[in-house]
Design goal:
This protein is an alpha+beta fold and 342 residues long. It folds into three domains: 1-39, no CATH class; 48-214, Chloramphenicol Acetyltransferase, CATH 3.30.559.10; 262-341, no CATH class. The protein has helices spanning 2-7, 14-20, 23-34, 42-49, 58-69, 90-103, 138-144, 184-199, 208-219, 222-235, 282-291, 293-307, 310-327, 334-341, and strands spanning 54-55, 77-85, 109-113, 119-123, 133-135, 160-166, 170-178, 262-267, 270-274. α2 packs across α3. The chain starts with a helix and ends with a helix.
Length: 342
């Protein structure tokens, strides 16, 4: 990403960099592909391609395939929550956020099935997210922030959530984009748009649909056909969808006693996601913890080894002690569960 940004060459692809590896070979690949016809102006390409529906990119298809196996997961969310001082101009910040959201077309693109039942994406200006400042007290926001992370709807809706809240102590800015539409670099672009808009500066034109066109053209090229033929010949007989057997149990609570789309607690930096519809029931949660005790502790130990963090080790110790108390308690109390989740 850094090479692409620093080079700032029209038509330079990440694949050129991976294939070439050295500056000389990258330059050779780039020159061979871009020599000849004058490249089309990206602004014209963007304007033309926004009028069409486009297939998902290979990477988007891969993410979508995983997503539909667990549509209520928040694993693919890329959330950001910022806290500003109470004297921040919330109205001005809200206007800046709305300008930024309207500038990035990926944030008002929707997935749908066309007449051939193929999954496509198209721009939907009528669905641009527009937020307003919500004034609440700090205690209310403390509860609100626990429910900010929500699953996205795969079909027919933009894949972004956002909001601004003003309390007596601070101004909070939240936005969350599904990973199928962006990555860390894209989130940084949205950050920069908000800053520029807040300062009253012009925003860089978005080129998401020019990017989709570029991806489609690449898949029509000779190099892509050769690469695909290689992989088909090498792996064509392998099942593309494999349920890998984990080498340890992973914590996952999926019962009707757990709240939908939220996460309860954070253990060793890993959130415990839960995916159903009823209010939290501490008794049933205690039962689940007891039933999964042999899987939870190895999972925590794995995190301890992975991160080599004293806090993780302390979490494992605390969790073990609390779990032992639960096992010795015939009727687990809500306070005990609250301690555990805290």
């Amino acid at each position: 990403m850094r090479v692409l940004a620093e080079a700032n060459l029209p038509g330079l692809l990440a694949s050129d960099i991976f294939e070439g590896c050295t500056p000389e070979r990258i330059a050779d690949i780039y020159e061979k592909r871009t020599s000849g016809d004058e490249p089309e102006d990206v602004t014209e390409t963007e304007e033309r391609e926004r009028k069409k529906a486009h297939p998902l990119t290979p990477n988007q298809i891969s993410i979508f395939d995983y997503w539909i196996f667990s549509p209520k997961t928040i694993m693919w969310n890329l959330p950001r929550l910022y806290r500003f001082s109470a004297d921040t101009d919330a109205g001005r910040l809200c206007d800046a956020l709305n300008r930024a959201l309207a500038n990035r077309t990926a944030l008002y693109t929707v997935f749908e099935f066309n007449e051939e039942c193929s999954l496509v994406q198209r721009i939907a200006p009528e669905k641009i997210l527009k937020v307003s400042v919500e004034k609440i007290c700090e205690a209310e926001f403390a509860e609100k922030k626990e429910t900010l992370l929500q699953p996205f709807r795969p079909i027919g809706e933009p894949l972004v959530h956002a909001g601004i809240w003003q309390t007596e102590e601070a101004v909070y800015l939240f936005f969350d984009v599904h990973h199928i539409m962006t990555d860390g670099l894209g989130m940084q672009l949205l950050n920069e748009d908000i800053v520029r808009a807040f300062k009253g500066e012009p925003l860089e034109p978005d080129t998401y649909y020019a990017y989709l066109y570029q991806q489609e053209q690449m898949r029509l090229g000779k190099k892509y056909a050769e690469d695909r033929a290689f992989f088909d010949s090498r792996y064509g007989k392998d099942d593309w969808c494999i349920n890998l057997v984990p080498d340890m149990m992973i914590v996952c609570y999926e019962t009707a006693d757990i709240m939908s789309g939220s996460s309860i607690g954070s253990i060793g930096g890993t959130r415990l996601d839960v995916q159903s519809h009823a209010p939290i029931n501490s008794r049933s949660l205690a039962v689940q913890i007891i039933e999964n005790k042999d899987g939870i502790l190895p999972f925590l130990m794995f995190n301890q080894a992975l991160y080599s963090d004293e806090k993780v080790g302390r979490t494992v110790e605390l969790f073990s002690n609390l779990l032992d108390r639960i096992l010795k308690t015939e009727d687990p109390e809500t306070t005990l569960i609250s301690q555990l989740l805290h």
